[in-house]
Amino acid sequence: MHMALLNSLLELAHATSENLAFAHRKDVDVSYGEETITETNLLELRRRHPDMITLKTFGKKLEAKNGADWEWHIIGRARSFGMRVQAKRLQQDDVLKIRHIVKSSGEEQIDLLTKDAEIHGLMPVYCFYSSELQRQKWKVSSDHHGLTSPFEFGCLLANADRVKAKKPTSLAAIEADCVPWHYLADRRRFRRLARIGIVEDGTTTQFLSAEGILQLPVAETAGPDPALGDIFPTIDELNNFDIEMPGRTGIFEHRSDVIRPEMSEEIFHKRRISRLIEIDVRGLPFDEDEPVVLPEAPPDPRPW
User: pTM of the prediction?
Assistant: First the structure.
């Protein structure tokens, strides 16, 4: 389990959920748009994990050309996984606006997204931002003992092909096809320790989990929906040479003729990429207690 990165994905999804709920309050009424949420989350991931994450941003006008907010690559030892991601925020009235005609081309945004992803072998993905009250399936569960607090599922991923087929106007219409974005690290629900009061010698001592480190996985979920669980690979699956993932959209095997898209600043502009985030997980162990021993000259799958 890759605790640090997993913790960041959980905390940022939780913050997204709570900030949206706060922004939607009548006494606050603050614009908290997709652009702000995306840039905040990606910048925070880069800040927290500078050794494994790189982030590049480009002109905002480029998004209108291809329908994508960002391109996301997770680089493992055995294979890499690439996505073209469009962010969508639920509005205050719970409406989900997927249909959007791009003025410059006259095409629907989702069609531009899926076409570009298919050309470059990437998975087309929607990342939905929502608050707790706007979700039905991905809601937190109560802890009657008061020892832990749950993370909210503010960032949900869905294959854009499923979104295109369903044409949802609400999260409820597509939520069953979504998974929390922390499933890229571990496919379980997690909690964190809450403050615990311990009475000693007539005084109360408060204890808090250090740095928000994750604690027990929630027991009620044995695993993801079987129809969804093998769509988004985990870090361990990207690092494991012993498993096979043939025909999986967005997967680039390092020991095959399938290569990732070329990357250079010129190509970024030609392909109209507005943001690029890469998470290099090749140095992460399968078990946090065991160090990774890499070959003397490990192959770098990136062609730039």
Answer: 0.84
